[in-house]
Amino acid sequence: MFDAILIEKDESGQTAGLTRLDEARLPEGDVTVRVACSTLNYKDALAITGKGPVVRSFPMVPGIDFAGVVESSDHDGYRPGDRVVLNGWGVGETHWGGLAEKARVKGDWLVPLQAPFTMAQAMSIGTAGYTAMLCVMALERHGVAPGSGPVLVTGAAGGVGSVATAVLAKLGYEVAAVTGRPEQADYLKGLGAAEILDRAEFTEPGRPLARERWAGAVDVAGGQVLANVCASIRYRGTVAACGLAGGMSFPATVAPFILRGVTLAGIDSVMCPREDRLEAWRRLARDLDPAILEGITEPVALGDVVETSERLLAGQVRGRVTVPLG
Ligand code: NDP
Questions:
Q1: Ranges for the Enoyl reductase (ER) domain (predicted)?
Q2: Positive or negative CA dihedral for 51, 5, 117, 111?
């Protein structure tokens, strides 16, 4: 038996809570992992609260991330005792996930724990941090370099935003951090932000082309914020768009793309090919100072995950939430 969060659904609606499950109920997979630590991402909070259509089959153990130790394996790449990390692949959406003491998954979905991170540190990073690195890699691929000019990060006090701010600053970029929480200015400056901007500057409909300000941007917001960000990107700059914290819509015009050669680079972490994942984790090991992880992380007990999901969606959680299980 093992502890897990279970989401169930019937005619009266969806419920989520802590429960004990029999290992015989674990889904198919060639590697069984004793989970040491999981996390709570924006997507997990949508799944647990039912506020977004994340869960595709019920009952579901949520949790798109975990780090743990292989207990048994029929996969050539893994042996009992190996320390592994999982991010995405539909785990916590279509396949039972990481908010549980045990998980059974396809070995092909796992990556080895990246030195020098501990399992807890890997989960402080989690999908949010690995996605932040995919965004940074996209900016680099499109020629945005530390000397190119200021780079904007939206939702900067959230999970993706905190890691993106820290990584970009360590790489030498001048980071302008957008937040709806001005009280987090010192936190963001501590991560390396050079400038703090009020989210309200980006939430009203703006002109198709605004003043050219940013060489690049990492956007977690989508919606009107993303439209305004695109309108203020400098000639041939790039926006890495990964989120919808401000909405699914994109009320923009093509003007920034056809008149300024702006690139909108879409970022998906879920089905991202293995080679890119391994590269992102190698880059995190090189370009993220592990010393900042404790300060951006709030550990919560498995039993507090449901309540924390509400707080996270209300924008009241700073940085990352981890769920230690070991
Ligand atoms: P968090 O909840 O940790 O952070 C989101 C942040 O967005 C908040 O902290 C807040 O930052 C800001 N925000 C909240 N509401 C709004 C709003 N209405 N308009 C603009 N900004 C807002 O979530 P994560 O960092 O984990 O994820 C951020 C987004 O990225 C989510 O939409 C998530 O689904 C997406 N995502 C996508 C991935 C992919 O593969 N494409 C992978 C991981 C995440 P502040 O208080 O500083 O303003």
A1: 13-323
A2: negative
